[in-house]
Amino acid sequence: MSRLVKSYLGFYVVMLVVVLVWGAPLLFPTLAYTFTQAEVRFLEELGELRVLADRNFPPFTYVREGEAVGYEIDLMRELERVLMIPVVVEQDTWLEVRARLMQGDAHVVSGMRITPERRMLYQFTDPYLYTLHAVITRRESPTSDLEVLRGLPIAAQAGSATAERLVGEDHRIVPKATPAEAFAALARGEVEAWVEQLWVARYIISAKDLPFYTIAPLAGTQGEYALALWGQADPQLRRVLNKALYRLHRHGVMEEINSRWFGPAVARVEHHEDRLRQALFLFLGAGTLGVGLVVSNAYLQRRVETQTRALRLSNTALARQHKRMQDMLINTARAFGVAIEVKDIYTGGHSHRVAGVAYFIAKQLGLTERQMFELCLGSLMHDIGKVGVPEAILNKNGDLTPDEYEYVKQHPRLGHEILRSVEGYEAVRDIVLYHHERWDGQTTGQYPGYPGLRRGSAIPLGARIVAVADAFDAMTSERPYRRARSVSEAVAIIQAEAGGQFNPTVVATLIGAEAELAATEPNRWPAILKDLTYKLRV
Fold first, then answer.
1. CB 89 within 8 A of CB 68
2. Pairwise CA distance, residues 404 & 387, whole Å
3. What CA–CA distance (Å, rounded) separates 529 from 531?
């Protein structure tokens, strides 16, 4: 072994030891969120966690049929499970919530927008959500531009981050106790606009099913949302809550709660530990690849030299073998480069549900187990091409511009390219490429087909099935701006598009499976797919 190789290996081993010692909690997340004995004793002495929450801030926290419900209430239930002490939630008006926290009536507020001014009064946990402000006007209003509305009365919840921001910008604010009262003032014509947190405004207006208002997100207002503690609170409580929140994040609970209330497109909060972990894994991966290449190259050189001296007659064959192995190493390095460059930002239950619905349809159509497995793979990866679409477009609040929509329409082609090197699964690649094609071949209109390469029976059967399953799940999933449609409503809409957007045979099969789909709980899809995978021994 050459001196250069020995030096490289020695340096790598030293760096590996340093990284493992320093970054053990990052490489092994359970160490980062496991409570120490001192923290366990602290929680036992605390006895219970007293939480204050706004009673009029849907969908975050509100009262429905006499019970406290909402996004933050679900989060508190999960915190109770992790902390293993009672979490007692009491609801009040927002101004009273803030006042009572300062008086020591509770340990934390269930959710508060983080601002520089509030950091002077409160301690905040690590953020668990991003929020955005919006301006709401009547449909006949000539503008929703705050600059144009300057000097005109604007309603906002008293004590909210939206009101504090507008007061700082010298707007004429009409404070209201609750978002509902602010909306009522707009409806009565007492104010020209209402400024509120985007999801709250969408929830209130969609719940009333009123199409007479325009909701315009305010650019540059995205901010962090977290648990708030009184500024003089014990810092150990903040550390314990951060660990609990991080555990919920690592176990996918936060993502499940976010999807339940806001849909899978909600922007995920990136934790500091996650970014460091990605950097460490990238370093270890690159270092390990480098070591593998160096050692493999040294081994190949030694083997070629030895074989050349011992078997001169086989020199040509050895040279060809050496070239093949070098090509393999080059291709491996390229694959690592692609894996590092492509970052998957779309996760959640959508793909599993689409695969589950597709599986039900495939059973009715009599597909073989091999075909059903390929269909499941294609369903799970049908949107893989969206990793190439800018995140700002995927997470945009509002309608896409024509240019932005063209970006989105490229994802089937990009997904097909990503899977091009996967041999033996052409059917999977076809599903990814053609699942947005229309049966009638239309490429214009409100719901155009794309990329516009196939129509009718020329579209692979798997892609036709996924097209129907994708649309069915989109309509039966909860969104912050509308409730999920029932199975029967979704089936009726899809039936109306039979022969247009969708293959009539697949639509008829979906109708036949309606009762079975309605009786299947959403959380059963992963188990159904796992059973199929086990049966195929794949």
1. yes
2. 15
3. 5
Distance CA 10, CA 7 (A): 5
Q: Which residue has the tokens 């997470």?
A: 395
DSSP 3-state percent helix, strand, coil across the chain (nearest 5): 60, 15, 30
Classify residue 209 as left (phi > 0), alpha (psi -120 to 50) or beta.
Answer: left
How far apart, in whole angstroms, are the C-alpha atoms of residue 261 and residue 62? 13
pLDDT in tens, 292-332: 666 666 666 777 777 767 766 655 654 565 445 333 322 33
CA distance linking residue 94 with residue 74, whole number of Å: 19
Q: How far apart are CA 363 and CA 170, in angstroms?
A: 63
Give the separation between CA 328 and CA 495, rounded to whole angstroms.
50
Q: Compute CA distances 464 → 5, 373, 378, 458, whole Å.
A: 54, 16, 12, 10
Task: Identify residue 139 by its one-letter amino acid code.
Answer: R
**Angle separating helix axes 504-512 and 487-496, nearest 10 degrees:** 160
Q: Return all residues near 361 (Cβ < 8 A) that are at least 6 apart.
A: 465, 468, 469, 506, 509, 510, 513
Q: Is there a contact between 498 and 338 (Cβ–Cβ < 8 Å)?
A: no
pTM (2 decimals)? 0.49
